[in-house]
Amino acid sequence: MDQLSQSTEITYHHEPAEDTSRIWKTFWILLGITVIELGLGLFMYLLPIPAWVDVFIKGVIVILTMAKAFYIVSIFMHLGDEIRNMIMTIALPLLLFIWFIAAFLWDGNEFRTSRNRYDKHFQEQTMKRQIRMGDTSQHSFE
Amino acid sequence: MATTAVAIKNNWWSGGKSPFNVEYGKLMMWYFLISDAFTFGAFLISYGTIRFSQNYWPNPNAVYNAFPGTGHANLPLAFVSLMTFILIFSSVTMVLAVHAGHHNNKKDVVKWLAWTVIGGLAFLACQAWEWTHLITGYHVVLTGNHLDVVGTTVTGNPWGVHIDRAATIADALKNTPHEALVNVVHTQHHDMSHHQLAAMSDDQLRGMLNLAELHVTEKGPVAFGGFFFGITGFHGFHVFSGVIINSIMLIMAQKDVFAKRGHYLMIEKAGLYWHFVDLVWVFVFLCFYLI
Fold this sequence. Notes:
Protein name (chain A): Cytochrome C oxidase subunit IV family protein
Radius of gyration of chain B: 26 Å
Keywords (chain A): Cell membrane, Membrane, Transmembrane, Transmembrane helix
Membrane topology (chain A): Multi-pass membrane protein
Order of helices and strands of chain B: HHHHHEEEHHHHEHHH
Strand order of the largest sheet of chain B: 2-1-4-3
Number of strands of chain A: 0
CATH superfamily of the domain at 20-135 and 223-290 in chain B: Cytochrome c oxidase, subunit III, four-helix bundle
GO cellular component, one term (chain A): plasma membrane
CATH architecture of the domain at 20-135 and 223-290 in chain B: Up-down Bundle
Mean pLDDT of chain A: 83
Oligomer: heterodimer
Organism (chain A): Paraflavisolibacter caeni
């Protein structure tokens, strides 16, 4: 007898995997990625590196985090086993985050740049030691 | 047989069956998780916006460098790595419980759910320690023209730029009121109580300070604590409710509720929630500790 016979909503039941090898493999992948992220984080902390390398490493860490998120959602949450239409109803709304992140970080950066340009007191209080890349307000110092 | 299967497969939307081939409750759990993802996303993005609007932001490696039982040893990222491993591992035990449920294996479901609950509780204990350490970890901060002692809270941030100008510190010490001075001295003399120190005169107190060892910083951006405690707190509350849900699943499985029902689909829904908690932590870990 089908073990899921009482759940009439499911037409096809995914044949459950016999062993747990896929789960453990995913665990080791997640563990490995986390260790690499930590290594990169400590690398940034311990070694004096130019600002562009710093930004590059942070970019790599973000991409590694996205890989971790993919493995958790696809394997642990079994979303990869669902039918395509259902995956799309979940994945497509999340694309809003692309605009969301770009727009708001741009806005924060714009606020900082304007404030530095027009509020010299704020700039003197906070800017002396740490200058971020791509800050156009710095030209006024030259 | 084969032709029937193909015919059905091509007509998911012709009625009479779930077009997503998924149980109602599970689909709704997914949609709830999407809304929750946007809530967490909004929090993290607002944190990013504020951070991008500041010229200075504390280095996480300097803030989160403590480990229980190691005193003042500088161990950046060590404790939060432990928390991350605990949560990833509890995610694995959860998916093993779901796997056992697919095979109607009650003994394994109970075993792995119990480990998941233990993992969740361990994570919460770690977070409690970390919060306590940050809130009660006092640091000497230059506030206006005098020194003060503050912990990391939603209104105070001692993680500003390090001050190494001896003259500035000496001036600030002269202006520091008695109570603040007692607190400053106490950071170097843990063996003496506040009561003992308060009985001394200001000059005596200043004389007790080892200025070469005194680490003084400016105030950092005040939003730092609010975002940290707000977002990790909101996540911690999710962990807490996940532990409650998993405990209920554990009791129900133990009492044969699912065995009588003939399937363990409820474990899958609890599992989705628990994995989501792990997923959010991956991003909290990224935004607060790594970059």
